[in-house]
Amino acid sequence: MTIFIKMVSRILMALALVGIMTMNLSAQDEPPPFVRESVRAVETMLFQEGDASIENFIVQFMPGIKPAERSVWQTRIKNIRDQVGALRGDISVEPSEKGFLMSLAANGVERVVAVTLDIEKKQIIHIQLEPPLQPIILTNENLMSVFEQLEKDGFAGLVYIKKKGTVLLRHTFGMGNEALQTKNNEQTVFGIGSRPIDFTIAAIYLLDQQGKLKLSDPVSKYFENVPEDKRTIRIDQLLTGQSGLPDFFHTEEDWDPDLQWIGRDEAVQRIMNQQLLFVPGTDQEHSHAAFVLLAALVDKISGMNYYDFIRKYFLDPAGMKRTGEYGETRGLSVTDFAAGGGPMIFGLPNIPPNWGKTSWLIKGSGGMYSTFGDLQQFYTYVRSGKVLDEEHGKIFKRNSMNLDGSDQGFELFSSFNTNGDESWLFLNKLNNRRKFRVLVNALKKFAEE
């Protein structure tokens, strides 16, 4: 899976950093090959078919299993695969005391595979399916108590829930920066994961409104030397996941899938050299790379660089003074930022200004920070008719649910409906990713009630 391929090197480095490995690694180092291979092997085996793949997995990665016990293990692993093989929507890996936990989720269902490693012998010694966590049930009456318990469990962030015109919960919890003893507050600045995708969508729709492009235009109208298989990709297909482009386009040589610096032209070249997942317009698959290409279009068509364009037409008019790109402070102090809880740590503290200039690996699809108030102001502005007319602004008035995050430890969930109901959850620390998924499912269900 493409989403897993991006994640694997960083998660594996995190496994090493938290102590599964006996050696001391920095975030830029490669993890030991055995750990990398084990995670890839489990992921590959779970999504393959047939008994042969399970047999090969046991022989290669579980050599300590005696021949007489292999049939029992084949049955066990087949049962695990039967239960998780369809859960391909989202995959994450986190360390455990004895190895790692692989979470697989789709359509509100999550299962966790626990893998035990013998580091010295370089083999997997056990694999099992963890029992599911109990769901969180949210009601108007228990909202505060649920988040107070989450704070006790090691979560930190901000939550805002409004339904039927009434704000039911507006609450900050936990530490923004434990080292500096600063608590989260409503002005705290968080990393916002992939949320800049909405800034890119707004920019493209404004350029369409200005008559500088048409959503039906092919990318070959604006980029030179477009490979034949990509010449028919249209702008609207980039916006809707129908381009056929893969999700990410970093290489094994990049020290980090997000933070490795590359420029716009190199990013475009890399994207154009990617193998398509399907013929454009014949299927749908989310692609961060598509939004990087859209940001490059904004660069080329507007006559301004992408960031200057969204600042001029959206961020500044909306009053988003605490929103910026990686590597810049915008006059904010270190105590204004929440520090990400990892697993990946870049800089002390682990805050966006310390991550280097936003790379074109993620420009237009990430690489920014903001606050609850700033993001509220952005959506209010693009829905107001002040910048986007009724036709071009309606995309932001639809019912929506979005979940964004980063390996540096930031998570962002939001929901909105046409009745004006909205929910926001910002996190800079979560000690239990499984419980986080349960929480997000609870927020989704509560928003839909």
List keywords for this structure.
single chain, 449 residues, 2 domains, disordered N terminus, alpha+beta, 18% strand, five-stranded antiparallel beta sheet, four-stranded antiparallel beta sheet, Beta-lactamase
CATH topology of the largest domain: Beta-lactamase
The CATH homologous superfamily of the largest domain is called: DD-peptidase/beta-lactamase superfamily
Query: Which regions are unreliable across 5 or more consecutive residues at pLDDT < 50?
Result: 1-30
**Shape, per Cα inertia axes:** globular
Class by SSE composition: alpha+beta
Percent range of helical residues: 25-40%
Largest pleated sheet: 5 strands, antiparallel
Mean pLDDT: 90
Give the CATH architecture of the largest domain. Answer: 3-Layer(aba) Sandwich
Number of strands: 14
Q: What's the level 1 CATH class of the largest domain? A: Alpha Beta
Structure report:
The protein is of the alpha+beta class. It folds into two domains: 2-129, no CATH class; 190-448, 3-Layer(aba) Sandwich (Beta-lactamase). 34% of the residues lie in helices and 18% in strands. It contains 13 helices and 14 strands. The strands form four sheets. Strands 6-5-14-13-12 form a five-stranded antiparallel beta sheet, with helices on one face. Strands 1-2-3-4 form a four-stranded antiparallel beta sheet, sandwiched between helices. The protein has a three-stranded antiparallel beta sheet with strand order 9-11-10. The longest helix is centred in the first third of the chain and has 16 residues, at 2-17. The protein is globular, with a radius of gyration of 23 Å. The relative contact order is 0.14.
